[in-house]
């Protein structure tokens, strides 16, 4: 059986909020290490991988591996009933038909309880190898969100060009073209507002902006975001959490450089 | 104890002294043990029963329709309130049998069959009864030949002449047969009479010996199929005809714009000739023709179709052709015009009728019968007709799409098919339902142009 108590309901809320527009149904794989999730979007060009380690919960108990097949839209409906500061507890049996969620308000004496019906989802897991990317860019997540939003007004796709001088997001569309260039800099007061570029070789790849905008919904999870690029492999967009991560992978657009 | 069940039993003689015994035989088609009802005079009486009186009955379980009665309410004949008899919600109330719920589980339980006289006795019994099992068990006479056939036509038995006793002795269910003969002695005569129909006989002393004659057997079976085909229930013939009738739209289309469509000139000539002939016929015949239908090109088209099928264009066909009526509009409820020719109807009925025989014959016998039936009544005209019909329907659908959009609904409702429109709507509905589960974002993302983007599976390999 699974019993996992999360001090802050907002963590799960934000995770689900971030991926529910990418994936419709998916399995939450629970084991003694925590809760993991891996799913692709309907077009299979993007992949989301989430991990909440068991130490992020207090307590966390999972006797045997359980896959909770959930419609994320339904889960979101229930999670909206939770306040950000509520204590959230997930409960499921070993062969569960439903997932039980309770929200406890720490201030008021209020406890709400919901059950979500589960479904059988036949999902295959992809093995994602550890990759040494040619470019590792860390920037404030709000900055990345803004760039994606601004450029998506002009075009469907953006080219991300990482050089020693900086990283350039450029696009061109029917009404014209535009670009945003970030140079690496360090903010002494607030580390999270720095932009860092680790480069082994220059990269220039093109990606669908609609997908990137979608990934940016996870911005509230973390003040910074890492973009990892290499030629011929998917872009990795990673949001680190206190006890886990939310990673998005997106296939580059090839042969469409106009 | 088993719960009571409702049976409709064969009526007894006037004195009502009749007993029933349940017997078990292997089902002639499925070989599964099946219960049959032996209807026989009680042992105390020695009645000489007519050879033609059926004595063996099969038990048919009538399943209650999903929305029909779920249980039986059995009430005395004179209920305290004036409740109509159809409280059981059966289309065909069965007055006597209602009171006669038997326990069929006791294999040889004998029970009195009540007859019409029982109505007078019933008021004494004021208790009502609700029976949970809403099935109705109907017993119908069955020809004992069917139970014997498999045995008769087996290699071993069919080679030699055998006496009736030996025949029954050799039968796998010989014990049951001897039970029949002891309980109902005169059934032996009846059996012998039935056997005569399908067997060659030799007399050996005062005993008659039987050997199955396959020609006789086939003749008998085919004559049965033909009889069934002629006596199919109206609901079934209607169903067959509906399936085979020409599309209503074909008629309408022919009646309206299709006439202007380029047609084969030869067709027109035949058409005219036929019309004239039919007019002559019409004047020659008296006005006793019952279905005074409007004559128009559609009818002529039908006849033309029939004659093209090399069918004998019998002048006694039911639709007369009054040529004076020039009205083109057809009453939508005149499907007689669209019925297939009687020859075709008969062939279709035969193919349906032979299917009924399937449950009484072993598979081998059934295939043989089917084959023989088709050599005697070749199916070619029916097949050709169906081909023709297919084309006609396709043409009608095409015509309708262009010109009859506003009448589509009624026509297709009458023809009882699933329309393209409906299928499309169904598809849309399903898609909508599917979409309802997706979030707006997922739906939006599906529309994103993913040209030039490789699938994730081409980068990451599946985990074992």
From TrEMBL, chain A:
Proliferating cell nuclear antigen PCNA C-terminal domain location is: 127-253
The record's similarity note reads: Belongs to the PCNA family.
Q: Indicate what this protein is called per its UniProt record.
A: DNA sliding clamp PCNA
State where the protein is found. Answer: Nucleus
Give the domain of life. Eukaryota
User: Which processes are annotated in GO (biological process)?
Assistant: error-free translesion synthesis; lagging strand elongation; leading strand elongation; mismatch repair; regulation of DNA replication
The record places domain Proliferating cell nuclear antigen PCNA N-terminal at 1-124
Taxonomic path: Eukaryota, Fungi, Dikarya, Ascomycota, Pezizomycotina
Q: Does the keyword DNA-binding apply?
A: yes
Q: What keywords is this UniProt entry annotated with?
A: DNA replication, DNA-binding, Nucleus
Endoplasmic reticulum among the record's keywords?
no
Report the PROSITE patterns cross-referenced here. Answer: PCNA_1 (PS01251), PCNA_2 (PS00293)
Its biological function? This protein is an auxiliary protein of DNA polymerase delta and is involved in the control of eukaryotic DNA replication by increasing the polymerase's processibility during elongation of the leading strand. Involved in DNA repair.
How is this protein annotated for GO cellular component?
A: PCNA complex
Per UniProt, what is one GO molecular function of this protein? DNA polymerase processivity factor activity
Q: Which SUPFAM superfamilies match?
A: DNA clamp
Which Pfam families does its entry note?
PCNA_C (PF02747), PCNA_N (PF00705)
TrEMBL record, chain B:
Give the UniProt keywords, A-Z: Nucleus
Which residue intervals make up region (Disordered)?
83-125, 252-272, 309-341, 412-447
Q: Does the keyword Hydrolase apply?
A: no
The job of this chain, per UniProt, is described as:
Non catalytic subunit of RNase H2, an endonuclease that specifically degrades the RNA of RNA:DNA hybrids. Participates in DNA replication, possibly by mediating the removal of lagging-strand Okazaki fragment RNA primers during DNA replication. Mediates the excision of single ribonucleotides from DNA:RNA duplexes.
- Name listed for the protein in its UniProt record: Ribonuclease H2 subunit B
**Gene Ontology biological process:** RNA catabolic process
| Localization of this protein | Nucleus
Q: Which InterPro entries match?
A: RNase_H2_suB (IPR040456), RNase_H2_suB_wHTH (IPR019024), Rnh202_N (IPR041195)
Q: What is the lineage of its organism?
A: Eukaryota, Fungi, Dikarya, Ascomycota, Pezizomycotina
């Amino acid at each position: 059986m699974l019993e996992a108590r999360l001090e802050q309901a907002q963590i799960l809320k934000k995770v689900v909020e971030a991926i529910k527009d990418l994936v419709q149904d998916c399995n939450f794989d629970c084991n003694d290490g925590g809760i993991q999730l891996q799913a692709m979007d309907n077009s299979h060009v993007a992949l989301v991988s989430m991990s909440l380690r068991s130490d992020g919960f207090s307590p966390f108990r999972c006797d045997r591996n359980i896959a909770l097949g959930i419609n994320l839209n339904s889960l979101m409906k229930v999670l909206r009933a939770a306040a950000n500061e509520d204590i959230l507890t997930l409960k499921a049996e070993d062969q569960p038909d439903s997932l039980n969620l309770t929200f406890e308000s720490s201030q008021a004496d209020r406890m709400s309880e919901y059950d979500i019906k589960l479904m059988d989802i036949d999902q295959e897991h992809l093995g994602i190898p550890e990759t040494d990317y040619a470019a590792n860019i860390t920037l404030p997540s709000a900055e990345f969100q803004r760039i994606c939003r601004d450029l998506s007004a002009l075009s469907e796709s953006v080219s991300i060009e990482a050089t020693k001088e900086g990283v350039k997001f450029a696009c061109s569309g029917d009404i014209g073209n535009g670009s945003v260039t970030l140079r690496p800099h360090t903010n002494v007061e607030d580390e999270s507002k720095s932009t860092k570029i680790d480069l082994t070789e220059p990269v220039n790849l093109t990606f669908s902006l609609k997908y990137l905008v979608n990934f940016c919904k996870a911005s509230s999870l973390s003040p910074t975001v890492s973009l990892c690029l290499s030629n011929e492999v998917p872009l990795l967009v990673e949001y680190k959490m206190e006890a886990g991560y939310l990673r998005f992978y997106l296939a580059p657009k090839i042969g469409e450089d106009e | 104890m088993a719960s009571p069940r409702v049976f409709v039993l064969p009526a007894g003689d006037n004195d009502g002294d009749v007993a029933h015994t349940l017997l078990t035989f292997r089902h002639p088609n499925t070989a599964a043990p099946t219960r049959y009802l032996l209807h026989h005079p009680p042992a105390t009486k020695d009645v000489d029963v007519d050879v033609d009186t059926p004595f063996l009955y099969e038990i048919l379980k009538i399943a209650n329709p999903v929305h029909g009665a779920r249980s039986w309410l059995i009430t005395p004949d004179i209920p305290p309130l004036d409740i109509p008899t159809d409280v059981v919600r059966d289309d065909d109330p069965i007055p006597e049998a209602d009171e006669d719920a038997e326990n069929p589980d006791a294999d040889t339980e004998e029970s009195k069959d009540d007859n019409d006289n029982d109505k007078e006795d019933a008021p004494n019994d004021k208790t009502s009864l609700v029976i949970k099992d809403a099935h109705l068990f109907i017993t119908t006479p069955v020809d004992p030949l069917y139970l014997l056939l498999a045995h008769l036509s087996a290699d071993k038995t069919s080679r030699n002449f055998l006496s009736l006793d030996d025949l029954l002795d050799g039968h796998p269910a010989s014990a049951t047969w001897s039970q029949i003969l002891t309980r109902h002695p005169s059934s032996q005569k009846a059996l012998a009479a039935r056997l005569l129909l399908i067997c060659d006989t030799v007399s050996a002393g005062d005993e008659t010996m039987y050997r199955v004659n396959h020609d006789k057997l086939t003749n008998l079976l085919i004559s049965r199929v033909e009889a069934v085909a002629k006596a199919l229930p109206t609901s079934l013939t209607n169903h067959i005809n509906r399936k085979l009738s020409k599309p209503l739209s074909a008629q309408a289309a022919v009646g309206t714009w299709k006439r202007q469509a380029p047609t084969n000139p030869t067709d027109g000539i035949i058409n005219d000739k036929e019309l004239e002939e039919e007019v002559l016929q019409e004047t020659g015949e008296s006005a006793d023709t019952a279905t005074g239908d409007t004559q128009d090109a559609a009818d002529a088209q039908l006849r033309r179709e029939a004659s093209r099928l090399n069918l004998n264009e019998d002048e006694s066909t039911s639709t007369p052709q009054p040529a004076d009526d020039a009205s083109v509009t057809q009453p939508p409820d005149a499907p007689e015009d669209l019925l297939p020719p009687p020859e075709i109807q008969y062939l279709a009925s035969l193919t349906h009728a032979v299917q009924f025989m399937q449950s009484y014959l072993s598979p081998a016998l059934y295939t043989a019968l089917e084959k023989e039936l088709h050599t005697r009544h070749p199916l070619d005209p029916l097949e050709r007709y169906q081909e023709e019909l297919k084309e006609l329907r396709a043409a009608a659908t095409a015509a309708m799409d262009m010109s009859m959009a506003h009448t589509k609904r009624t026509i297709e409702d009458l023809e009882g098919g699933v329309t393209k429109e409906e299928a499309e709507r169904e598809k849309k509905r399903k898609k909508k339902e599917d979409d309802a589960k997706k979030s707006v974002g997922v739906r939006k993302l599906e529309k994103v142009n993913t040209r030039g983007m490789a699938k994730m599976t081409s980068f990451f390999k599946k985990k074992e």
